[in-house]
Design brief:
Helix 1 crosses helix 2. Helices cover 39% and strands 24% of the residues. It is of the alpha+beta class and 101 residues long. It has 3 helices and 3 strands. Strands 2-1-3 form a 3-stranded antiparallel beta sheet.
């Protein structure tokens, strides 16, 4: 079945991707909910909760502070295997900020 897709989250301030993932249904929209849960949790424990967020969630936090939302591109109608391979290829192509590339 070809009900998977690969998605790229894009920072509208720079038009650069900041996250690549694979999913189905509405997975690409779940990152804002993830951010809200993480931020709420860390707010109870730390004075500066944003410091505890992943790079992806820090980007979403910065966008929220700037009253902006991430944009996205979808590459649809993929098998799970094709989606996994494309996701890995795009991560290699764009690099990883954590690794400095």
């Amino acid at each position: 079945m070809k009900d998977y897709y690969v998605y790229i989250l894009i920072d509208p301030r720079s038009n650069l991707p900041f996250y690549v993932g694979k999913g189905k249904r509405k997975r690409y929209l779940e990152h804002l909910k993830e951010y809200e849960k993480q931020y709420e949790y860390y707010s109870k424990l730390y004075k500066t909760p944003a410091m505890m967020l992943s790079l992806k969630l820090k980007t979403i936090h910065e966008l929220k502070l700037a009253n902006k939302q991430y944009e996205y591109d979808l590459i649809e109608n993929l098998s799970e295997e094709d989606a996994f391979l494309l996701e890995q290829s795009l991560i290699c192509w764009f690099g990883r900020q954590l690794c400095g590339n």
